[in-house]
Structures are given as structure tokens and as C-alpha cells.
Amino acid sequence: MSNNESFIDEVTEEVRREKLYGYLRRYGWIAVAAVLLLVGGAAFNEYRNAQARDAAQATGDALLSALEETDPEARVAAMQEVAAEGTAAAVTRLLQASTQEEAGDIEGAAATLNAVANDADAPEMYRDLAAIKAGMLPTQDADARRSALEALSQPGQPFRLLALEQMAYMTLATGDTEAALVTLRQIEEDAAVSRGLLERVQTLMVALGEPLPEPVSE
Question: What's the pTM?
Fold first, then answer.
């Protein structure tokens, strides 16, 4: 019986082995393909990440080189030659606008900022920042500037209080001191006002003859 059982076990093992080899011959290519895909995918991701790092470093080096230009016009020209993609493109154009403003090209700076503000591919934070910076430029079109600032001063906008501050300055420039003070009080009473902005607003209010509120006694 033991010999028969041993023979049966050997036959059973051989059948299993043949079935395994059959499966490998029939489906083994799937496992090989899966391994190749995993290895190839990892290699491609690493290659793509390396390319992204190299591109970001090249953009950063180009920006630093451009910013080292001492002549404002030369700095503007160098900044315009910087090529960037993705988020870096929005940051690059914001820096380009700053150099244009420093060089006295207010209209050019406004155009660059408006391009970022209207770029659907740019991150929302940079679009909002470009919009508020454009609203702070003394462009000739006061109506368009005020309209843009009013949109940015709505509740929930990230730069709402800064937009209100600029609107107060514009209102004050027209000679309407009382309306400007109303806007300044709105900023002063907002719970989200920063210390720096609060100090600027209160300093202007005092200059306009508005008494500061008495400190609350404990």
C-alpha cells in the first residue's frame, strides 16, 4: 500500500507541476508585462520628476540672473526672456510686472498683471494677487480700476481689506473725505484686519481729523 500511495502522490505532484507549467506558458507573459510596466512606470516618473526639477532650477537661475541687472530697463528685458511653465509662469509674470513698475512702465505692468489675473490656468491665489496689484497701480482708467477693486472687496475675497484700502485712497483723491472715512472705519472694525493695515488706516484717519476710539478699560 505504501508503494501504491507513493506512486499516486508522485503522479499527483507531476500532474500539478504540468498544470503549473501550462499556466505559466499560457499566462506567464501577463506577469512579465506587469513587472515591465511597474518598472517602466517608476523609471518614467523618476525621469519626469528629474525633468521638472531641472526646469524649475533653470527658471530660478534665470530669474535670479535677471533680477541682478542694475538698470531697470535691462532688468525688464531680461525678465521678459525668462521662460517658465505651470505655476512658475504665474510667479515669473508677477515678478515681470514688478520690474516693469520699477522701470516706470505702469501700463505694461498693468497689462502683465491683468494677463495673470485672467489666466484660467494660473492658480487662483496668483490670479487674486495679480488682480489686487493691478488695482493698486495708478492707471489712467479710474472707472475700470474701481470696478476691479469693488469685485475684490466682496466678502470672502482673500484681499478684501486691501481692496477696500485702495478704494478709500481713490475716494479721498476725489475730495470726498467723509466717504473715504466710512470705508476706513469698515476696515478698522473688521476682525480680520492685520496689525500693519490697522496702523496705516488709523494713521490716515487721524490725519483726516478722525479721533481714534478710546481704549477699553479693564
Answer: 0.61
